[in-house]
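Posting for a labmate who doesn't have an account.
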Amino acid sequence: MNKVARRAILPVFVCMLQASLAFALPKVAVLDLSVQKGIDPSVIAPVTESVMEEVVGSRAYVVLDRAYIEQVLKEKEFQLSGMVSDTQVAQAGQYLGADYVVAGKIQLVGDTYLVVAKMIEVRTGVIVAQTSEQGEGKLAVLLGLGHAVGKKLAVGSPISLLAPSPGTAAASVPAARAPADVRVQHLSDAEYAALAALEDPVPRAKVRLSIYALRDSASVSDDGWKATIEAFKKRYPSISVSIEETKDSGAYYQRLAELARTGKMPDLFMLGVDRRIGEAFPAKDVRPLLRGREAMFLQPAMERIATGDSLTWLPESVIASHAVFANGELLARLGLVMPATIDELLAQSERIRAAGLTPVAMADKDGWEMQSCLLSVLAERAGGSGWLLRALGGKGASFKDPSFVMALDSIRRLSESRMFPDAINELEYSAPIESFKRSEAVYLINGLWCTDDLAASLSPDRKESTIIATFPALTKELGSPGSTSAIVRGYAMNKDLSGDKAAAAWLWLWFYSGPEGQRIRFERTGGNGCAIDPRYFEGALDPLWAKAYELLSVAPLADIIDFRMESPVVNAALKDLLAGRKRPDAIAQEIEAWVARNDPNRKR
């Protein structure tokens, strides 16, 4: 070949090489950043674009167009809004055909804007980079924060370290894994400490407060309650408390309703999600007293209890009844990964069974396990946020809805695919937990509370490889992907309080529900139930509990069915479903008929 021909062909070859190398670059989707309530949503697009500009400028990725992302997710009927889990983000990435996804949020803490973003590897669901930037000023400051976050995220990721320098050809890079000590936080330690340091006025005169509490003195949490009350008395000796207690929730709310009718409400009283729908009690809006400290709590819990812009109580506990624990060592040995959809999970059954293992460890002898630990979250996922309340009240929904039938049918599919133990209806509650400990099951579906048991039993290596997630996506979801089901409880202030009484009541409420009271109860009763992420507390935290609270910090919260309704029909019907005696549609009609006849919420 002569020199002229070579000179003619060379530019074409170089262009082809550059194109092929460009296609070898990993694809990244930058999702629209979420915004905290109160921030103008019109900033979402420009701040997201500023993050994208820096990721594009890194020359380490092929960045997907925002319009394409919106179109694909819309076609898939996939909603990403508010607090989302890493699993949800990874699932969006699968739909988009991306290798990595960038997700973030815009927040306002006091007068300071905060932009937080993280990059997640779609294949593994692990975080490969995370960063944040903060600044004070008008909304325009957010554009600069977006650019700063995008630059740090792109430069700090494992992929960008292998990116070509300007003017050089790109090279394909291997998939990256997150380091074992990745710690995702809602606030930085410094921001958390600054909020915790805020002080409130202390009344000069002596004050006596009346408190009406829903609690059981025989409960394991009683020691934490007593320790918190004693610590408050030492901190504020001029404030004394008179406590009336009831341990039965039905009797508690009947008594509270009576006190409200007679105008004899206590200064402080417990509220929470219970079987009464739409019943309101005279509580004071405490958001002005928080002064930004609401950001210290688990945000899904705060979103659950807020009413518009007002906040009438603070969460003392969040008890999640659903989590999927996965044995990472078994997954690796079997060549499997965490499933993103129910179909992917079902497809794993044959390989797991062939290895002599149980795919999903669960028990249902007592009748509540399947309903509390799985059906509750499936019903909310399928029917949409608030579906259970609408169905109970007969307001635009019922238990005969196709969405609820699909939730029941998901359990049928799991059962018929032999995902569950063969004798699930006869298994005691503790049996699947012990099976998971012995590495006889790949997955365990249970309440997040069993983290305490696992943390006390598993080896350090098992803890490191254990994955804590939520159930994968259903065929069609109207609710929040990645959600769990939970009880949220806390205390409220009488709205008629003023002066020293109001100041003293707020001091008690903040001490009990805020970081000090939460830390005391955490140390006395273990990791379960905190409404503030204990990773902010001083001292070591078991790695399993760290993973559990990573989940609780982002997973939307659904209602637990048997905490909203007391129906023996549901538990008995699920046993029939697992045994193959009844079909999902027949069970749905049976439950609807029982609710229409018996549930007090339907009769209101």
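Reply:
Got it, the structure tokens are right above this. Confidence is low (pLDDT under 50) at residues 1-23, 158-185.
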